[in-house]
Automatic annotation (TrEMBL):
<dbReference type="InterPro" id="IPR007110">
    <property type="entry name" value="Ig-like_dom"/>
</dbReference>
<dbReference type="InterPro" id="IPR006140">
    <property type="entry name" value="D-isomer_DH_NAD-bd"/>
</dbReference>
<protein>
    <submittedName>
        <fullName>Uu.00g083130.m01.CDS01</fullName>
    </submittedName>
</protein>
<dbReference type="GO" id="GO:0051287">
    <property type="term" value="F:NAD binding"/>
</dbReference>
<dbReference type="InterPro" id="IPR050223">
    <property type="entry name" value="D-isomer_2-hydroxyacid_DH"/>
</dbReference>
<feature type="compositionally biased region" description="Pro residues">
    <location>
        <begin position="10"/>
        <end position="26"/>
    </location>
</feature>
<dbReference type="Pfam" id="PF02826">
    <property type="entry name" value="2-Hacid_dh_C"/>
</dbReference>
<keyword id="KW-0560">Oxidoreductase</keyword>
<feature type="domain" description="Ig-like">
    <location>
        <begin position="343"/>
        <end position="403"/>
    </location>
</feature>
<dbReference type="InterPro" id="IPR006139">
    <property type="entry name" value="D-isomer_2_OHA_DH_cat_dom"/>
</dbReference>
<dbReference type="InterPro" id="IPR029753">
    <property type="entry name" value="D-isomer_DH_CS"/>
</dbReference>
<dbReference type="GO" id="GO:0016618">
    <property type="term" value="F:hydroxypyruvate reductase [NAD(P)H] activity"/>
</dbReference>
<dbReference type="Pfam" id="PF00389">
    <property type="entry name" value="2-Hacid_dh"/>
</dbReference>
<dbReference type="GO" id="GO:0005829">
    <property type="term" value="C:cytosol"/>
</dbReference>
<dbReference type="GO" id="GO:0030267">
    <property type="term" value="F:glyoxylate reductase (NADPH) activity"/>
</dbReference>
<comment type="similarity">
    <text>Belongs to the D-isomer specific 2-hydroxyacid dehydrogenase family.</text>
</comment>
<feature type="compositionally biased region" description="Low complexity">
    <location>
        <begin position="32"/>
        <end position="46"/>
    </location>
</feature>
Length: 403
């Protein structure tokens, strides 16, 4: 899932995954949660007004700092949100790092209780949420809710130790990312990059028509190896097992419960090496922070001619080693939505674009429905925490509890 485009890399310290599988989304303050609304529903979802504590110096309601663009998709929910809270949205000029830090020192926005960032492409003008920035937050801040599945631009460990719950919005993007991942997986089995580029002229059309068959395979009975079986990994597993008859294996830092494995008809591998050695296509769908999982050593475990897909983070891959594996033929085809030095794409990998590589622009989660969900889920997280409930998609409770 795309991280904020205006947030610099390299990334923050290693961060954990959010709870997986995620709980259903409650209508905060509405009583019954037996039929929670879908994140992909129409942008008119209503919020029941919760019971809230009084807030900071700017008024009697809790203050929420809204960083980034205005709400676009959930006007009714945002209307209820702004009724429950005093919402302040700093200007773009105030969000540059120096100006933002100066405003925090001045307590320009009072003792706000929450930070709300509903879009990944805006609201990150202040750059990395590191120790320098976090130290300036007022002690009243209790929750930071943001769009996006990734959170390597924020030191969520330090936020937790400071007493701030960080909530991502990966749940809202998981369906879109899983759909996109399936398209990338198919592309590696069916030589789609080669066939797409070859359709541009009669000569290449005929050549591809004659030669692509010998390089293409059905997905059925091939082994899909998932690195990570969180929300996105589980949806990929379901689609590929039920829809294409693939065998699905996974490796994760925590083995999933037996009922989850049974429901998905997937098997657990004790190590990354065991997974990779037995897979026909390896898919990275794990959070950032694990280091370079795909490197020279792990690429040597790939079956000759195996395939590789990445919809997680480019920093998890040694791209030079991956280019070596492509040149050597150990890896036959790749599909990458994420790259180590975005927006730049590795030059050696670009050389395979249109033949053995499908390279896209960190867009797996980029749909209207995802954006609707980002807005709504972020508001739900803030409302839940400030009304004394539990966050829907917190990622740093481990460090909050320790603090």
């Amino acid at each position: 899932m795309a991280e904020p485009t205006n947030t610099p890399m390299p990334t923050a310290p290693p961060t954990p995954r959010s709870t997986s599988p995620a709980p259903p989304l409650p209508l905060i303050g509405a009583g019954s949660t037996s039929n929670p609304p879908s994140l992909s529903s129409s942008p008119t979802t209503s919020f029941a007004k919760p019971s809230l504590p009084t807030g900071g110096a700017l008024g009697t309601k809790p203050v929420v700092l809204h960083i980034g663009d205005a709400i676009r998709y959930n006007p009714d929910a945002y209307s209820a949100f702004t009724t429950a809270f005093e919402v302040i949205r700093p200007s773009a000029a105030e969000r540059s790092r120096d100006a933002f830090m100066a405003a925090l020192r001045e307590r320009r926005w009072g003792d706000f209780s929450a930070i709300f960032r509903p879009f990944w492409g805006t609201g990150g003008e202040m750059g990395q949420w590191d120790a320098e920035l976090i130290a300036l937050l007022p002690p009243s801040v209790r929750v930071f809710a943001s769009a996006g599945a990734g959170f390597d631009w924020a030191d969520v460990k330090l936020l937790g130790e400071t007493g701030i719950i960080y909530c991502n919005a990966g749940l809202a993007a998981s369906e879109a990312v899983a759909d996109f991942a399936v398209a990338l997986i198919i592309s590696t089995f069916r030589m789609l990059p080669y066939l797409i580029t070859s359709a541009t002229s009669a000569a290449t059309f005929s050549a591809a028509h004659d030669s692509a068959t010998a390089q293409s395979h059905n997905l059925r009975s091939h082994v899909l190896g998932l690195v990570g079986l969180g929300n996105i990994g589980q949806q990929i597993a379901h689609r590929c097992r039920a829809g294409f008859g693939m065998e699905v294996a996974y490796y994760d830092v925590e083995r999933k419960p037996a009922d989850v494995e049974a429901r998905l008809q997937t098997r657990y591998c004790e190590s990354l090496e065991a997974l990779v050695r037995g897979a026909d296509c390896v898919v990275l769908c794990t959070p950032s922070g694990a280091g370079r999982l795909i490197n020279k050593e792990s690429l040597a475990w790939f079956r000759p001619g195996a395939r590789f897909v990445n919809i997680a983070r480019g920093t998890l891959v040694d791209e030079e080693a991956l280019a070596d594996a492509l040149e050597e033929g150990r890896v036959s085809n790749i599909a990458l939505d994420v790259h180590a030095n975005e927006p730049e794409v590795n030059a050696r990998l670009k050389a395979f674009a249109g033949t053995r590589a499908l390279l896209t622009c960190h867009s797996a989660g980029g749909t209207v429905e995802t954006h609707i969900g980002f807005e709504e889920l972020s508001m739900r997280n803030i409302t839940a925490v400030l009304s004394g409930g539990e966050a829907v998609t917190s990622v740093n409770l481990e460090w909050l509890r320790k603090s």
